[in-house]
Amino acid sequence: MNVKSTEKNGNVATIVVEIDKELMESGVNKAYMKARKSIQIPGFRKGKASRKMIEAMYGAHVFYDDGLEEIFPEIYDFAIAKQEGFKAIGRPSLTDMQISEDNVVTLTLTTEVYPEVTLGQYKGLEVERQKASFSDEQVQAELDRMAQNVSSTETVERAAEMGDTANIDFEGFDNGVPFDGGKGENFDLKLGSGQFVPGFEEQIVGMNVGEEKDIDVTFPENYHAELAGKPVAFHVKLNKLSVTYVPALDDEFAKDVSEFDTLEELKADIRAKGLERQEKQIQADFRQKALELAAENTTVDMPKALIESELDTQMERFAYQLQMSGYSMEQYAKMMGGDVNTMRSAFRPAAEKQAQISVTLEKIVEVEGITVSDEEVEAEFKSLAEQYQLEVDAVKEMVPMDELTGSITTRKAMDLIAEAAVAVAPKAEEKTEDAVQE
């Protein structure tokens, strides 16, 4: 092969390459061998016609397009991948093919290429960082959750009281006519929860199991238009009454649900673990904000192919998450009132941001001369093996080396940005004009 010319205009490169006759012939012959089984020519059994007979009938170059497909990896490697000064994105397009009288093939290929990237500031960035805190209210909420997890429920035979769970049948009437959404059967209502219209739950109090009763209530003025402010009647039957027993929050409770002997020790552990979780999230947020700021400072004319590639990745990742929940992308999009194209449009801004981050990190790797040692590679393989519960050798066969080293260098670039960033206190929220004046 011979590259006759290379021209780069912005993010698009045009390469003119001349293909050796021998290489082209090998591709054409491979294409013929694959196609001949399905070709039938009058006078020949299916699959028995010679290449010359087929070319005589359909044209001398009938197999050239498929032949090029056969040898395209070699063409790409020679004409695109090894060209200095640019890196192709995706598969190049064939924009022209000329075949001379002596069957020399000249191809014109166009491809989007990796963009010129100019870094802005990426070290010493000022990034807002929250302070970790875990309030008494949060500790109490966790204790309440733990207590609910070990609570017990018993059916009782007595008059209903606030705090009980009443299993009821009910139907609502507006001037004697049932209204939509006003009927339910075997509904569990925690008395005092405020789930129903004000005044409804209070009138269940005192009812006995099996008792039926008409309850008069008035819907709030801010209820939906058909019933707002209207007096209505509910016919109610109490089917069952149950009580949930939540253990007292004391030292005995702490012993039952943890390894601690006292409630104070349990509270201290809850607070410590809550602070630890929050600190990890704050650090992750700080790291992401620093990364986004560095990317915002980068100047690049982003090729569409890079954005589309990132968009494909995000869509595939989301489709996999949906699949794990039993949905397809099409089903989810329909539930959200759109289609897959609508979903793709919704994902595009995030894909554009991530593409900007990716080129920023790659440029930092280049500028900083970030490399990966053999020890780091082995450690990464071992980590992946433990994560997926596979043998290290199996992981090495599955994960391409360039993909692995790229992941490590990218992570190092992210570490560099985050470690060099300067944490600053979050800005106080500005008061609105109608804020209460002291």
Roughly how many Å is the radius of gyration? 35 Å
Task: Give a short account of the largest sheet.
Answer: 5 strands, antiparallel
Number of domains: 3
Q: Which consecutive residue ranges, at least 5 long each, have pLDDT under 50? A: 431-438
- Tell me the CATH topology of the largest domain: Trigger factor, domain 2
How much helical structure, as a percent, in the residues? Answer: 40-55%
Q: Work out the helix count.
A: 13
How would you describe what is shown here?
With about 450 residues, the chain is α+β, with helices and mostly antiparallel strands. It has three domains: about 1-115, Trigger factor ribosome-binding domain (Alpha-Beta Plaits, 2-Layer Sandwich), CATH 3.30.70.1050; about 150-245, Roll (Chitinase A, domain 3), CATH 3.10.50; about 265-425, Trigger factor, C-terminal domain (Trigger factor, domain 2). Helices cover about 45% and strands about 20% of the residues. It has 13 helices and 13 strands. Strands 7, 8, 9, 10 and 11 form a five-stranded antiparallel β-sheet that branches. A four-stranded antiparallel β-sheet has the order 1-2-4-3, with helices on both faces. Residues about 430-438 have low confidence and may be disordered.
